[in-house]
Amino acid sequence: MAGSHTVVAPDLPGHGGSDSVRADLPTTADLVAEAVRTTLGGEPFDLLGYSLGARVALHVATEAKLPLLHTVFIGVTAGIEDPAERDRRRQSDESVADELESSGDVGHFLDAWLHGPLFDRLPPEATERDERLRNTASGLASSLRLCGTGTQVPLWDRLPALGCPALALAGSDDIRFAAHALRVARLAPHAVASLVPGGGHAVHLSQPDQTWRIVRHWLESVEPALI
């Protein structure tokens, strides 16, 4: 992507160089929007996010007044609609965050996280574990508490107003998020879904060449629309 685009990749709150920043999803979206404005000024741009980043991108795309050309969501959900299920997820994330913060062992947390069902299609050499070790226990714990899907206000009803073209991409074997991608494509007026055969949740890491071919072809072939 860097070969054809100027890539602006801010560290999200609780991660990397933004480890000390504490923010929920709407605030995170505001911070990302401001980072883009500061870096690009008023130039139109393409927006891409994966997983947590895709949920942030969904907030940016539906709330921020930015000159978007295209939006790419990889492994996205617009939230858990059932209040009881959402509360169970929030409590689960709180428990994981408490345990991580108590132990301070980021390595152990990452090993457990990467051995979960979301990443069963991701080979060990593609986990980017060393990069993930830039994070701290307190930063990751805060992200789980403030930006987990249990705290996310469902945004499904905002998708019909999404004005820019959107690509919702997922691995075909990532059943839950593949279904979310198809639903995004049904609800957003200028959206399509693409499923990478045999791909899991982190399809851009396990099958980077195929994922980039899909994204590049879509970016080049779909007429942008400023909003």
Report on this structure.
This protein is α/β, with parallel strands linked by helices. The protein has two domains: 16-80 and 153-221, 3-Layer(aba) Sandwich (Rossmann fold), CATH 3.40.50; 83-146, no CATH class. 46% of the residues lie in helices and 11% in strands. It is built from nine helices and four strands; from the N terminus they run αβαβααααβαβαα. Strand 3 (166-171), helix 7 and strand 4 (191-196) form a beta-alpha-beta unit. Helix 3 (83-103) packs antiparallel against helix 6 (137-147). The longest helix is centred in the middle third of the chain and has 21 residues, at 83-103.
Task: Please give the structural blueprint.
Elements: H1 25-40, E1 45-50, H2 52-63, E2 68-74, H3 83-103, H4 106-114, H5 129-132, H6 137-147, E3 166-171, H7 175-187, E4 191-196, H8 203-206, H9 208-221
Parallel strand pairs: 1-2, 2-3, 3-4
CATH architecture of the largest domain: 3-Layer(aba) Sandwich
The structural domain count equals: 2
Adjacency order of strands in the biggest sheet: 1-2-3-4
Sketch the major β-sheet. 4 strands, parallel
How large is the share of residues in beta strands? Answer: 5-15%
Can you tell me the overall shape?
A: globular
N→C terminal distance = 23 Å
Which structural class should the secondary elements be placed in? alpha/beta
Instruction: Determine the fraction of residues in helical runs and give it as a percent range.
Output: 40-55%
- Taking all residues together, what is the mean pLDDT? 94
Low-confidence stretches: none
> What gyration radius follows from the Cα positions, in whole Å?
17 Å
